[in-house]
Amino acid sequence: MATSERIIVGLSGGVDSAVAALRLLQTGHRVEGLFMKNWEDDDADGHCAAEDDYAMAREVAATLEIPLHKANFAEDYRQRVFAHFLHEYRAGRTPNPDILCNREIKFRAFLEQAQALGADAIATGHYARAWHGPDHSELRLAEDANKDQTYFLHALDQAQLRPARFPLGDLPKERVRELAYEHGLPNHARKDSTGICFIGERPFREFLARYLEGSEGDICTPDGRVVARHHGLMFYTLGQRQGLGIGGVEGAADAPWYVVDKDLAGNRLIVAQNSAHPLLMSPELTTEPVHWIHRFPADGETLQARLRHRQPLQDCRVYPEADGRARVVFEQPQRAATPGQSIVFYRDGTCLGGGVIATRHTLSADTPVAAGA
């Protein structure tokens, strides 16, 4: 990291971005904050969580004695992220808007705004590391494997990664809170935000139902036995156990039910009482065109991958195709490889990039139920 850069930090009101700003100040950089408002809707009771976040960001900036800018990216968010989010759910897939939010808002709209304000670089409170060489930059795993967020950052390109700084990449979360407390930051004990980037912790089904109308249908076993009704396939995801509404089923064991597939053509949700049912397990999958951060791997190269945040890295072989897609073959079958979600690739601790899962091959390839979710 160059000395005395002018760095604008995305101050969210959370402890991570606050400590990111603190660490940059400690290493001699000229630091400013920028608060991003990405969503306009209030909660049902009329309370706007963004106002609480902004108030805390102001307190943090005052404590650190740095300027704080504010930008409203809500329209960008609706056009670049939310519209795609709804489109994917309508198509029966399960998208990850946090990945698109990072690519289109936090490292594009925010980056452009920061550069317009004269910044040399931007910083966030993500748990990741960036390495900057003479001709390219790399995204690397954070020291704290449990907090690593490279999964959500894999879609960044060189122009976005080059000016990016991740001051928390070498710290465990516990140390971040200790630093916040030691330096009197007002949010040192503030609860971490969870949930989808713009939804937060509100009930997901109720939120989605405001924008999409579900079509009820049958919940069936793989052999076609109807066991309940669903509220719309969009409200369910592969591997889901909670919220299925399946009561006691005659002749079935008293055991949990899991979503193992979606039959889009028949509007049926397929369930089974086996968390590792063959319909849930995928020895291989194919992707949409893969985004490679620096260069793509050799045909059949052994890499590591994860299909969801915090999943332990899985060994796989990757076969890039001429159209940019890839076929991925796993050493061990993977559970709930969900179309619409992303698979992210790694080599020796470096995040190489990733792509959206297009189709999955299951251990029940001969089952007459459609394999796509």
UniProtKB/TrEMBL annotation:
It comes from Thioalkalivibrio halophilus. PANTHER family: MITOCHONDRIAL TRNA-SPECIFIC 2-THIOURIDYLASE 1 (PTHR11933:SF5), TRNA 5-METHYLAMINOMETHYL-2-THIOURIDYLATE -METHYLTRANSFERASE (PTHR11933). The record marks H126, Q341 as: Interaction with tRNA. Residues 284-357 form the tRNA-specific 2-thiouridylase MnmA-like C-terminal domain. ATP binds at G10, L11, S12, G13, G14, V15, D16, S17, M36, G125. This is tRNA-specific 2-thiouridylase MnmA. GO terms for biological process: tRNA wobble position uridine thiolation. Belongs to the MnmA/TRMU family. Residues 96-98 are annotated as: Interaction with target base in tRNA. Residues 206-273 form the tRNA-specific 2-thiouridylase MnmA-like central domain. GO terms for molecular function: ATP binding; tRNA binding; tRNA-uridine 2-sulfurtransferase activity. Catalyzes the 2-thiolation of uridine at the wobble position (U34) of tRNA, leading to the formation of s(2)U34. The active site is at C101, C197. It is found in: Cytoplasm. One of its GO terms (cellular component) is cytoplasm. It comes from the Bacteria. Its EC number is 2.8.1.13. Keywords: ATP-binding, Cytoplasm, Disulfide bond, Nucleotide-binding, RNA-binding, Transferase, tRNA processing, tRNA-binding. The keyword Transferase applies. The lineage of its organism: Bacteria, Pseudomonadati, Pseudomonadota, Gammaproteobacteria, Chromatiales. It is an enzyme of class 2 (transferase). It catalyses: S-sulfanyl-L-cysteinyl-[protein] + uridine(34) in tRNA + AH2 + ATP = 2-thiouridine(34) in tRNA + L-cysteinyl-[protein] + A + AMP + diphosphate + H(+). Residues 147-149 are annotated as: Interaction with tRNA.
